[in-house]
Design goal:
Helix content is about 30%, strand content about 25%. It contains five helices and eight strands. Strands 1-2-3-4-5-6-8-7 form an eight-stranded mixed sheet, sandwiched between helices. α3 links the parallel β5 and β6 (about 130-135). Pfam families: Acetyltransf_3 (PF13302). This is Probable acetyltransferase.
Length: about 180
């Protein structure tokens, strides 16, 4: 049974449950949503990511969560906290935040609402020293959200991802320290 981890005015962020891979496959795994994330995934790939996330939550108490709209009970995205684990990243092990929002819920502020809660959770509950977020230069909505969170561009952390098309390389990163976040509060 999934647990509610965080709540915002309009969203519940809950842990991933056994049946969520099929739900994500159906609702979030579209060409538009997955455009800058390596493309649409096979169900087995989503199941493997969910298994990894559930294990991470069990071990460390954090991971990615399903983003549920309170008003409807609909899955509208996912968001969370993990460790940078890309083999080409120069900062493996850093705490990484990430999100995606269902296409029919874009431009409603769900991404920023969820991520403000995740950032506060990371700094207050998990005592992380700093956070990073990864995207591509072409994914302007993503890096604009990072800027809204007070994150700063870190060109020294850029890297190429051979699994992504040339248009989505290099992978770029933004970061936010606990001190920067506290000064914004």
């Amino acid at each position: 049974m999934a647990d509610i981890v965080l709540e915002t005015d309009r969203l519940v962020l809950r842990s991933i449950d056994e049946g969520d891979a099929q739900l994500q496959f159906r609702l979030l795994n579209t060409p538009a949503v997955m455009e800058h994330l390596g493309g649409v995934k096979e169900l087995h790939e989503i199941e493997a990511k969910h298994a990894k996330t559930m294990a991470l939550f069990a071990r460390h108490g954090f991971g990615f969560m399903m983003m549920v709209e309170k008003a409807t009970g609909d899955l509208v995205g996912h968001a969370g906290l993990k460790r940078v684990d890309h083999p080409a990243a120069p900062n493996q092990g850093d705490f990484e935040i990430g999100w995606l929002v269902r296409e029919d819920r874009w431009r409603r502020g769900y991404g920023i609402e969820a991520m403000r809660a995740v950032v506060a959770w990371a700094f207050t509950r998990h005592d992380v020293p700093h956070l990073v977020a990864l995207t591509s230069q072409r994914n302007a909505p993503s890096w604009r959200l990072m800027k809204k969170l007070g994150m700063e561009r870190r060109q020294d952390l850029d890297f190429d991802d051979p699994k992504y098309p040339p248009d989505d390389n290099p992978t770029i990163q933004y970061s936010l320290t606990r001190k920067q976040w506290e000064q914004q509060q």
